[in-house]
Amino acid sequence: MRNALEKAAIETLWPKVARNGARKPPRNYKYVEELARLQYELIKLQEWVRTRGLRVAVLFEGRDAAGKGGVIKRIMEPLNPRICRVVALGTPTERERGQWYFQRYVAELPAAGEIVLFDRSWYNRAGVERVMGFCSEREYREFLHACPAFEDMLIRSGLILIKYWFSVSDEEQEKRFVERARNPFKRWKLSPMDLESRARWVDYSKAKDEMFAHTDTKKSPWNVVDADNKKQARLNCIAHFLKQIPYGHVQPAVVELPPRQADDGYKRPKKSSQRFVPAVY
Q1: Separation of alpha carbons 159 and 110, rounded Å
Q2: What share of the chain is helix, strand, coil (3-state, %, to 5)?
Q3: Residue 87: helix, strand or coil by DSSP?
Q4: Which of 60, 76, 136, 229 has its CA 20 to 30 A from that of 254?
């Protein structure tokens, strides 16, 4: 219900934010108004990426229940899914396990005029695979050595790579896990792996620190989002994302509806000849 009300409010605010344009948020800002303004800017960014043929990849990593999905959802809401898409790869298949580690992620990278949002990425190897023992020590060390070179190669090819780490406190994560366990609409988000991450909080912290030490580079830095407050995290992340790509306003093409084709004596079949969905409502 909260999400539906939020989306409905944004629909009414778009004409207002379109007139006002980009601005610095006031001290007494309202969350929905700021989200509407940022989403309108995302539409402009999308058109800039499309018309200029840019390739943009955004990585979302962080603790379980840190709010990555909520931010991705707000970014995607106003955008064209043919231009901006989400990649959330599952457990690798037996064949994929025999590939070069980065291979299945390379296949998902954006083409010209596309934005790809990675809900988890190749950094699985430095996080869950490392902590849970799903990779060997040699594979882990090879990843830490190869990852900066891999990302440097992507950036030199013209790809715009942006990395976000969502940071949430121990207390806030536990609160969100409890909410997911009690809420049937969110229970699917609570996997056995999520529960295990609670038991291995310190191990995950150590893995994140070592990952940062090797992959937080000048060319490909980590941008840390304080995610204890979900709404603030969403606004801060989207605002930061918009600043990473200098974009201008692309005047949309004027859409003119063509006149309806004449019937020329065509008669539609009777409704009784078709199977309609029952009118329950």
Answers
A1: 8
A2: 50, 10, 40
A3: strand
A4: 76
Residue type, 139: E
Q: How far apart are CA 71 and CA 129, in angstroms?
A: 24
DSSP 220: S
Euclidean distance between CA atoms 196 and 14, whole angstroms: 42
Cα gap 198→61, rounded to integer Å: 16
Measured from the Cβ of residue 211, the count of other Cβ atoms closer than 10 Å reads: 21
Q: What is the DSSP letter of 270?
A: P
Cα separation, 198 vs 65, whole angstroms: 11
Q: What is the pLDDT of residue 31?
A: 92
3-state DSSP assignment of residue 129: helix
How many angstroms separate the CA atoms of 74 and 77, rounded? 5
State the pTM of this model: 0.89
**DSSP codes joined into one string, 12-55:** HHHHHHHHH-S-PPPTT--HHHHHHHHHHHHHHHHHHHHHHT-E
